[in-house]
Design a protein that fits this description.
3 copies of one chain form a homotrimer. Helices cover about 15% and strands about 25% of the residues of chain A. Chain A is of the alpha/beta class. In chain A, strands 8-11-14-17-20-25-28-31-34-37-39 form an 11-stranded parallel β-sheet, with no helix packed on it. A 10-stranded parallel β-sheet of chain A has the order 9-12-15-18-21-26-29-32-35-38, with no helix packed on it.
Chain lengths: ~350, ~350, ~350
């Protein structure tokens, strides 16, 4: 096993507690002059670290916590002897604080000599294009964009300002990506949708003539694939967050701020509303409508539209010990039959009761 | 959000309606001299566009459709005032028409100066090898093949004529790929199968000595993985279409023209017949036999062989609102018990009826 | 279809039977001087090949098997007329024999001229860095490591001795990988975990400040993704084997020698014990505890912790013909209701029996 690293603190970054409080509206109780050098768990924190507590059950850990400051809900402010930062949503304060740190080295602006950038490319200010990257003809790259090592940006693609393309990403021709997006490694955007017409027991290829359009503030997880539309566009709204290894079929449309956890597959032409939360490994058939704010728990099998907004849906059998599961799964396959048996029993019992009642009366 | 693109028409392509009719056997009613400049949806079509209707429910849209020509089944030919192209399978005509268009720029033949091509490689006519690609020793590349940017073609690999390898693909040593295939970005073909022998609570690695053999006219979707065989070959038949993020285990064999939708996992040594349709996110155990023409709906759990050809199979629980699902899933775990209870009830009721009958008679 | 290859034997390798016997403790019955030139299936073996039989049902094939030596359990030694190698676990002997062969060409030590290796990188002895690879600042690479073509090794990453990174892999900054690991093509290690804090109907990004730590003798399958921790580390133990297209969330910890089959998704912060076997396409929620030695069958939906060590768990409905499945799935959605009906029937029948008994007595 490799030994423990100390990488969390290898870049000397300082975040003033006061600055964080001003940015977020959180309130300091204690030393207002503190400088934060890192973020840590309650157990591992040392001097200079910020910690946070989101659940009451972790409060007892604060007794031995060595952090310089702990983010708490106002009602828990008495739980820590040192400086506290108070806010109703400590997790949000943690998120904002984390944005001052990074495990990555500083990005070097400019084009690496091994990158291949077509002469027709439009480059914004402060762009970084890493080693072995390829940027094809007619691409337009916004200010302060980063193209990671080995990534390929197809012809005519447009990237908004401050968008990051990590290493070994593939963006196919004509893709449009908004501002402040992060596209993680191995992602494939705009490769062809899966379209074939059956003809004499073979499959006739349908050229996918559309593209992919992605809004602002979108994050796409590693090795996720988003197919180009057959016609018009596959559309990912603003603020959408997609995890790793997700498949988005052609002509799918996803509303603003929807979040999709890893390993989901979304069938072609399905429309998902805004503010939805799709649990991991959920599969959706194509051509469905999912209402705004729908929440789907993990591994759900979505075979039809879900039209009730802000409603939670689930599927699957949960998990049991294998012996019990085997017996139950046999019975699942006889469930319709069982129901028929029960209905028949109901009638028989009803009649028996009537007879008995008749006799008794 | 990025603004709408007009990329569908950025290459001035013209397809003569008459040519399409001759190629496909479709019949023109109207202006036989029409030139088609693009394909569009019924709602967005403008002059020069071809549209198609596959389902009766879309016919009312034809009243306001601005397309120059609409592909229809012969029985609907009266539904559009302009020129129509008649065929029993409009979707097939759309597919054939689409093949005259492309969202990609024209491919440049030749080897990009940054590509690394081993001196022993055999190159056909008109081959294109893009920037940063690597082609290792002993590779044989057929006529008019395309190797995308950043792709790696392992030693001894053979590619048939007119096969396209998109950007950032990895083909491992000794892979064999037929003619007219399209291997999409991020695909990994011929990396090692998952083989380990248990030995003293650890796993002893089994070197995967076989390879992957892929037929003609095969399409492999983005980020899909096809493992090399332990011994002999993993085999993908002619005309097979595999979508994105699919896993094909070592020594799997897939029959001609079978189609596999995204996110499926096929366990090692499973044999799938020809003309099968495997729905998305289906999981198959290893060492199974799936008969020809089997259809499997999405998210199916295939734990045993499916030997009835041209038969449709399904699994899963569908989806419900979470509250109802929770109650049902508790009951699923008691299903065997419930069945026992019902059987007991049946006996009791039978006896009660006999007693009643006996008493009544 | 591409023609059959003979790649299994294209490198003339010789393994002395005696050497294999000494290495593994297996016993030779027959010609102790034999040299093995390859490994083959019982049906395809020719002179010079080694075969193995793990199950009794394959013994009849030995009558016509042309192999020079067959590995058998001692009790079956009479089943083959030629030389046999006897061991209680023939599959293990096959694994050990396979390690003397390879479908890949010999690795060339040294740094390819097109590779980009930062001047600050620490290189062990006999390292191989292939074409178009990128190795960033502060990376430390152990002796005899191999970095495949097009791979990107992020800043500060550490690789133990004899570790192989295949082509087109991405290792993000600060990743730590042990000795003798194999990281297959398309793998992404150490890209950001999926962490966002909800704030005013949007998602506030949580910078993932931790890293990924991988033990010795680990294998990570093609296109698998392992996310860096939010804080501290995502940890993969020694001897862990992970198949293709698996997602490992941030802060997951996996115990030694656990094996995870393809297409699984493991939610963030879940802890899996040692010696577990996780079937393919299993989905696990986050923050769970899975005990040592737990076995989970394929496509299981793991929604809660599994705390019973060395126990087998399962889930799912299996598969049925679609018509039957449709009827059963309707009934699944009424299962709670059905159970209530049955309970009511039980009461009614109990009363009827009491009444009858009362009347009869």
């Amino acid at each position: 096993m490799a030994s423990d690293s100390e990488h969390d603190k290898n870049t000397p970054v300082t975040l003033l507690l006061k600055e964080l409080a001003i940015q977020t509206g959180a309130v300091i109780r204690g030393d207002e002059t503190l400088a934060i050098h890192g973020i840590a768990t309650l157990d591992s924190a040392t001097e200079g670290d910020l910690c946070f507590v989101t659940e009451e059950k972790y409060l007892p850990k604060l007794e031995r916590c060595q952090a310089s400051v702990v983010v708490l809900k106002p009602e828990y402010q008495g739980s820590f002897a040192g400086t506290v930062l108070l806010h109703d949503n400590p997790y949000y304060i943690y998120a904002r604080a984390s944005q001052h740190f990074s495990p990555y080295p500083a990005i070097q602006q400019g084009i690496h000599p091994t990158a291949v950038v077509h002469e027709s490319v439009t480059l914004g200010k402060g762009v970084s294009i890493a080693a072995q990257a390829v940027v094809e003809q007619g691409v337009s790259i916004g200010d302060y964009c980063v193209i990671g090592a080995g990534s390929v940006v197809g012809a005519g693609t447009k990237l908004g300002d401050n968008t990051q393309i990590r290493a070994n990403v593939t963006l196919h021709a004509q893709s449009q990506i908004g501002e402040r997006c992060i596209i993680h490694s191995g992602v494939v955007i705009g490769d062809d949708g899966f379209g074939f017409a059956p003809h004499e027991e073979q499959w006739e290829r349908i050229v996918q003539m559309g593209n992919v359009r992605i809004g602002d503030d979108v994050e796409i997880g590693a090795n996720t694939t988003i197919d180009r539309a057959a016609l018009s566009s596959t559309v990912i709204g603003n603020g959408v967050k997609i995890d790793n290894l997700v498949q988005i079929g052609h002509n799918v449309e996803i509303g603003d701020n929807t979040i999709i956890v890893a390993c989901c597959g979304i069938g072609g032409s399905t429309k998902i509303g805004k503010n939805c939360k799709i649990g991991g490994a959920t599969g959706m058939a194509g051509h469905l409508d999912i209402a705004d704010g729908v929440m789907i728990t993990g591994m759900s099998q979505v075979t039809g539209s879900l039209r009730k907004p802000y409603t939670s849906y689930s599927s699957g059998t949960g998990i049991s010990e294998t012996g019990l599961w085997r017996r139950n799964v046999v019975r699942f396959k006889q469930l319709s039959e069982l129901t028929t048996t029960v209905k028949k029993l109901q009638k028989q019992v009803k009649k028996l009761i009537e007879n008995t009642d008749g006799r008794e009366s």
